[in-house]
Amino acid sequence: MTGIIFTGGEGPEKRFIENEIKAGDYIIAADSGLDRALLCGYSPDLVVGDLDSVKNKTFLDDIPADCVKIFPEDKDETDTEIALRIMKEIKVDRVILAGGGGGRLDHLLGIVSIFDRSYYPDVWYTAMEKIVPVSSRDEFYGMLGKTVSLFPAGKEPCRIKSTGLKWNLDTVQWSKGDAGISNIVVEDPFTITMVTGKVLLISFLKEFGE
Question: In sequence order, what are the residues at sequence separation of 6 or more whose Cβ sits closer than 8 angstroms to the Cβ of residue 100?
Fold first, then answer.
């Protein structure tokens, strides 16, 4: 089953995520992610969080009480973490995260830190970026000429093999604090194979300057 988490912060336009979401997918809105979900035309199955940042509170009055889980403002998990935990508990095997861009840096870094854990989103969309964790071998299509950047995630050093990038990564070994900024896709598809570790592959939803 696929699950979609809409969270607060700057999120993607509907056109960038609508092919990811199918009928029957389970949608959770984390706090003000409710506003993003409704803006994109999706009614969540569950709303979670302290709900202090939600603007469209009318929706909350029109859904069953068991579809809303309110948590105190003072808690050990962020609203995004709560939503992700619920996805794990109901055994969702593919998670799409939408939102979390811009805004407070601590919230942004909090989401980035989730990818160091054992259960994390399969793809993350902000307003401008698409972030995909790569832990084995992945092929990426339709990105010829696009800019991509890579950051190590997790605790293990990263050893990488690649094809189709302007700057080949076959000799690269990264640890936390290293990064590969602004590589260029020169073949379609291009591939990334992780020998050890995990990376976050960042591509851009819009051309620079749009």
Answer: 7, 8, 9, 10, 11, 80, 107, 108, 111, 124, 126
Same domain, 159 and 181: yes
Q: Rounded to whole angstroms, how far apart are CA atoms 136 and 158?
A: 11
Contacts of 52 (CB under 8 A, 6+ apart): 31, 73
Q: Do 9 and 30 fall within a single domain?
A: yes
Residues 38, 44: Cα–Cα separation, whole Å = 8
- Parallel, antiparallel, or unpaired: how do β-strands 2-6 and 26-30 relate? parallel
Q: Render pLDDT for 52-99 as a digit per residue (tens, 0 to 9).
A: 788 877 888 788 888 999 888 778 899 999 999 999 999 999 999 999
pLDDT in tens, 177-189: 899 999 999 999 9
In one-letter notation, the amino acid at residue 20 is E
Whether this prediction's pTM lies above 0.85 is answered by: yes
Residues 30 and 91 in one domain: yes
